């Protein structure tokens, strides 16, 4: 009897139910499942009785053969939940006494080099045919299409419909080399199983995308008559380190894969569908959404719920579903609960992560779909290697006892221990608190003080962190990558993560992550925060030999992206009446420093100067920014045409101080060196009327604070000498604001006297 | 109705053939008072190539599903969105599909009064005979209720609040009182008009008008809100712009076809300034001016006209810059600054000769 090939979509309850039915009916001798064949010896470990979701985490690092490059690293997950067809196949196969085996290449095989989620949707890579099917059935996207064709459709004929669907998807596209290699390998297992089973049935459960190819490769008439023997399980290449182990997983992470890595969304909904059927799932989803909204004190009336239910039933009817499907319920809830215009489309009309600006009620709906379930491993599960790695490290470095630890970061052993502790801190392993040490900023701190304590939760936290990597450094880097993923466009958070990465000694980010950081820096919303971040990153890039980040490529790329973005933002600030803002001036200072120190290419240089010239001449820009832009050009070019004209042109009493603040912030040295400008300023100030002077005074005082006291004294001495005074103590007998207040009072009295004709 | 010489016949006339075909082949259950079943109405708007029904609205199919369901329930349908997102077209199509008639339309505005919505009087008859059904002039709402048809209310938020609120009892109690008829010889039976099956209201509102005449919470509750978004897919939008602008140019006597890459630059510019996000995902500021697909079509039309009648060629990115300054940035200096910044800083980062040309033409912006 030939093998039965079940093509499934990973994490589909409908497929899982089909797998269970087929295995129960056929009672096969062999059940073959898509999954790393290197795990075959450890299926017992998977079936110990964990609380799902769990995942098989695989990590890999190749040997450094020529020393000329970084070792290649790769980490991936194969997640299982209760309704995963693969999981059901393992359990049902065991239950009927079949031999259960994984038949795919190991996760470290080059065929998986770009995969982080083994059970991602393959058809997403073949978008054309899927788009045509969506148009044909008039649905929004592939997930809705799937619900329509399979999850919300009757179970009769499911197997045939699945086959037709996947044949269509596969039929039009050439599989990649990676897919072909995997299929070739899987087919060898199938042939061996069929030969071994003799007359008894064999069930093969794989992604539907591979089904047609496997049937072709296993056709006894077509395939070469090579002896059907069990294939060898590939072993790791020389010098490479890698392994797979079971780790707890969560619905949140399952839903967080995106792009080519994504699988079926909304795990909590499909769990309900698996547990309670479509009616029950509808009820549970509605209940979860309402509970969440009411907990946030959002009104959800009974009338709203009736309207939502009516709409969902109606939508199911229009779309031809016997009971409301996932999107029917969501659409019904959105119709009934959202009574204002939305800023971004409903997230379930397109794939991908939530867009900023999503309606709060819709955010809760998506959260309810995603769910909060977290898996837990059976106590007998072997601990992931991270636990052993950390225990050994702490012992070797003498960090395994409670008490304070002082580290000198300039010594190699101090730095090594500091990095280990920071990595543990980044992974949120309890019991490691830092009391003092380097912070973001320029002040150099060379020592660190930590407080270690013994904490019950340490092992648990390490097991959870085991999902990030097999050794501490990898795990910390992956956790930092996660934090960058969650940071959104908050560049302050990104700066904190980059600093943590520097402390933990994982500052060189992977290319993918770097792209992500660069993208986020490229969409920072306002110049002040971006300026702060760039200043921190620049100081890490320039100076930090201590942390080993000086001239790092990663930080260089962040700086280049930051420059482009800062210039864009600076040109967009409007408001001729706005007061000076040191934050946005700081952004231009940061850009200038980067241009001076980082050697960006000439196009960036000339582009920046062009932006600065436009801003300096733009009457609609705030005065401080115009001044800063003028100073930017002056400082970078080393000269400026007609400085005097520019100063005179900008010298309106209400804005002169703000304009000068900008100039001084960027071109302080030039102002001092070119004595002429000081003289011009002195003349202009002397020419101000009493009232104008008082208007200009507060901003002028602010502007001059950009000069350190010593330089202020130089200026004062210059001015005094200019007016023929003798060198003298420049300290006023009273605080300056008191003097200013006194002068204001004098001016008022004079004005009153003049008005009354007494003067 | 004779279609000849009409600038724009209503949807039920333009698509009379398709509606008839759908009616004939319609086997589904019709909601009470509807001209088509829900599925046939859906097909009318989303199209069905095999049945020869054209697609009339580019957008998420689920939006149409939700809109139709709202109309079949006891709540009205409120279409909201940026200007130029085809809300009025959608409301016309929905009314044509549901009632076979899209002409019961109230155009909202600052001067809209209740008698343009509910009913008015023929004053000559009113003075001669007193209030009677003969002297009553029904307005769209009264007719829609009495005849069981869909009433369209365009730009509802342009109306003063008290005028908007006259929809409350027709929508919740499904009844319209004509108190003037209460004491007349018919015994007052005409003084209450009860809505027949098939009556509902499709209102449209512009998100730019948000806050001008904020709807009352009571009225909001009686509507299901559906937001109509600009076209999400780039290629779809380019094709639509090419097709619509092509038709307009043809009518203007221009025979040169526009270059696809020039239109792509135009549509990209519109999309990025509209969403405040570049194709790569970098955030920018949105323009305050309307940058809808409809505006893109009109700019593409103007670009084609300039190119053809000034130089006998299909139009270049330099024409785009000239036209953008007048049509998109209008007289708003902030928008002009945003546009200038886009041309100065964003355009040179794009690859392609048309982008280079766009960047090179930046000095054509005024000021």
From TrEMBL, chain A:
InterPro entries: DUF5682, LolB
Lineage top rank: taxon: Bacteria
Name of the protein: Uncharacterized protein
Organism lineage string: Bacteria, Bacillati, Actinomycetota, Actinomycetes, Micromonosporales
TrEMBL record, chain B:
GO molecular function annotation: ATP binding; ATP hydrolysis activity
One Pfam assignment: AAA_5
InterPro entries given in the database record: AAA+_ATPase, ATPase_dyneun-rel_AAA, CbbQ/NirQ/NorQ/GpvN, P-loop_NTPase
Domain (AAA+ ATPase) ranges: 73-233
Top-rank taxon: Bacteria
Transmembrane segments: none
Annotated protein name in UniProt: AAA+ ATPase domain-containing protein
């Amino acid at each position: 009897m030939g093998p039965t090939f079940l093509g499934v979509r990973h994490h589909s309850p409908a497929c899982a139910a089909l797998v269970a039915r087929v295995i129960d009916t056929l009672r096969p001798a062999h059940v073959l499942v898509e999954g790393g064949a290197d795990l075959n010896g450890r299926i017992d470990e998977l079936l110990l009785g964990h609380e799902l979701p769990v995942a098989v985490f695989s990590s890999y690092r190749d040997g450094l053969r020529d020393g000329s490059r970084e070792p290649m690293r790769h980490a991936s997950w194969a997640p299982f939940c209760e309704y995963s067809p693969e999981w059901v196949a393992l359990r049902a196969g065991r239950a009927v006494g079949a031999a259960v085996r994984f038949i795919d290449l190991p996760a470290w095989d080059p065929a998986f080099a770009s995969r982080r989620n083994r059970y991602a949707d393959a058809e997403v890579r073949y978008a054309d045919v899927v788009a045509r099917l969506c148009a044909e059935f008039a649905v929004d996207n592939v997930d809705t299409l799937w619900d329509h064709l399979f999850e919300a459709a009757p179970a009769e004929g499911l197997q045939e419909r699945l086959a037709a669907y996947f044949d269509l998807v596969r039929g039009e596209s050439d599989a990649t080399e990676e897919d072909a290699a995997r299929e070739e390998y899987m087919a060898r297992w199938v042939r061996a199983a069929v030969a071994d089973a003799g007359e008894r049935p064999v069930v093969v459960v794989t992604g539907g995308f591979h089904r047609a190819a496997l049937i072709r490769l296993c056709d006894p008439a077509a395939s070469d008559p090579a002896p059907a023997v069990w294939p060898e399980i590939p072993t790791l290449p020389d010098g490479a380190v890698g392994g797979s182990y079971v780790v707890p997983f969560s619905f949140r992470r399952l839903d967080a894969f995106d792009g080519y890595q994504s699988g079926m969304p909304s795990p909590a909904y499909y769990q309900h569908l698996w547990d309670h059927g479509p009616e029950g799932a509808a009820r549970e989803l509605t209940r979860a959404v309402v509970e969440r909204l009411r907990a946030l004190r959002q009104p959800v009336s009974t009338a709203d719920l009736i309207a939502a239910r009516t709409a969902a039933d109606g939508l199911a009817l229009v779309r031809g579903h016997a009971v409301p499907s996932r999107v029917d319920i969501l659409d019904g809830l959105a119709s009934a609960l959202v009574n204002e215009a939305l800023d971004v489309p409903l997230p379930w009309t397109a794939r991908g992560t939530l867009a900023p600006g999503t309606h709060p009620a819709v955010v809760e709906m998506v959260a309810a779909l995603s769910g909060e379930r977290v898996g837990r491993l059976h106590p007998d599960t072997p601990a992931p290697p991270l636990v052993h790695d950390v225990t050994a490290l702490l012992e070797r470095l003498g960090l395994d006892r409670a008490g304070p630890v002082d580290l000198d970061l300039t010594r190699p052993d101090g730095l090594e221990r500091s990095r280990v502790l920071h990595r543990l801190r980044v992974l949120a392993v309890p019991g490691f608190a830092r009391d003092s040490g380097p912070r973001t900023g320029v002040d150099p701190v060379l020592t660190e003080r930590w407080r270690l304590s013994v904490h019950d939760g340490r092992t648990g936290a390490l097991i959870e962190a085991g999902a990030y990597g097999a050794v501490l450094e990898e795990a910390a880097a992956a956790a930092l990558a996660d934090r960058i993923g969650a940071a959104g466009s908050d560049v302050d958070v990104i700066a904190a993560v980059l600093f943590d990465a520097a402390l933990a000694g994982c500052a060189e980010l992977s290319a993918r992550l770097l792209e992500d950081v660069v993208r986020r820096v490229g969409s920072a919303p306002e110049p002040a925060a971006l300026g702060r971040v760039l200043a921190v990153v620049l100081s890490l890039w320039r100076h930090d030999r201590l942390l080993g980040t000086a001239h790092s490529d990663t930080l260089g790329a962040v700086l280049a992206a930051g420059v482009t973005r800062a210039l864009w933002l600076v040109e967009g600030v409007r408001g001729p009446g706005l007061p000076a803002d040191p934050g946005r001036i700081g952004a231009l200072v940061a850009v200038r420093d980067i241009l001076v120190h980082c050697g960006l290419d000439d196009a960036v240089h000339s582009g920046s100067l062009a932006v600065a010239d436009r801003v300096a001449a733009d009457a609609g820009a705030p005065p401080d920014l115009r001044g800063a832009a003028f100073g930017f050009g002056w400082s970078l070019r080393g000269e400026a045409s007609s400085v005097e004209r520019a100063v005179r042109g900008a010298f309106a009493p209400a804005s002169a101080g703000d304009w000068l603040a900008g100039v001084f912030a960027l071109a302080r040295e030039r102002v001092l060196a070119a004595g002429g400008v000081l003289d011009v300023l002195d003349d202009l100030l002397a020419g101000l009327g009493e009232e104008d002077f008082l208007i200009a005074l507060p901003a002028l005082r602010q502007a001059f604070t950009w000069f350190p006291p010593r330089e202020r004294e130089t200026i004062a001495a210059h001015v005094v000498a200019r007016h023929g005074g003798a060198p003298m103590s420049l300290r006023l007998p009273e605080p300056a604001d008191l003097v200013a207040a006194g002068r204001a009072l004098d001016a008022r009295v004079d004005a009153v006297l003049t008005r009354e004709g007494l003067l | 109705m004779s279609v000849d010489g009409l600038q724009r016949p209503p949807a039920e006339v333009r698509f009379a053939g398709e509606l008839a075909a759908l009616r004939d082949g319609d086997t589904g259950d019709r909601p009470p008072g509807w001209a088509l079943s829900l599925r046939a109405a859906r097909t009318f708007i989303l199209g069905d190539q095999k049945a020869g029904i054209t697609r009339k609205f580019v957008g998420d199919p689920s939006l149409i599903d939700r809109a139709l369901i709202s109309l079949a329930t006891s709540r009205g349908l409120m279409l909201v969105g940026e200007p130029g997102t085809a809300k009025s077209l959608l409301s016309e199509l929905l009314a044509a599909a549901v009632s076979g008639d899209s002409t019961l339309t109230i155009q909202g505005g600052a001067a809209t009064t209740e008698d343009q919505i509910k009913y008015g009087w023929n004053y000559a008859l009113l003075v001669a005979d007193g209030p009677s059904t003969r002297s009553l002039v029904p307005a769209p709402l009264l007719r829609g209720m009495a005849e069981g048809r869909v009433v369209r209310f365009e730009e509802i938020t342009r109306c003063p609040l008290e005028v908007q609120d006259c929809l409350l009892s027709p929508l919740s109690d499904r009844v319209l009182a004509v108190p003037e008829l209460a004491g007349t010889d018919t015994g007052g039976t005409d003084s209450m008009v009860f809505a027949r099956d098939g009556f509902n209201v499709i209102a449209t509102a512009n998100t730019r008008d948000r806050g001008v005449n904020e709807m009352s919470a009571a009225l909001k509750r009686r509507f299901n809100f559906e937001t109509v978004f600009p076209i999400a897919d780039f290629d779809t939008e380019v094709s639509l712009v090419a097709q619509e602008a092509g038709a307009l140019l043809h009518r203007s006597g221009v025979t040169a076809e526009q270059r696809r890459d020039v239109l792509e630059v135009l549509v990209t510019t519109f999309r990025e300034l509209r969403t405040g996000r570049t194709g790569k995902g970098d955030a920018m500021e949105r323009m305050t001016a309307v940058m809808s697909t409809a505006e893109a079509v009109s700019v593409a039309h103007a670009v084609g006209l300039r190119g053809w009648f000034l130089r006998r060629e299909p139009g270049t990115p330099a024409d785009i810059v000239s036209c953008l300054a007048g049509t998109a940035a209008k007289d708003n200096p902030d928008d002009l600054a945003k546009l200038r910044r886009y041309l100065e800083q964003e355009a040179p980062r794009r690859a392609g000769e048309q982008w280079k040309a766009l960047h090179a033409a930046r000095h054509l912006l005024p000021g």
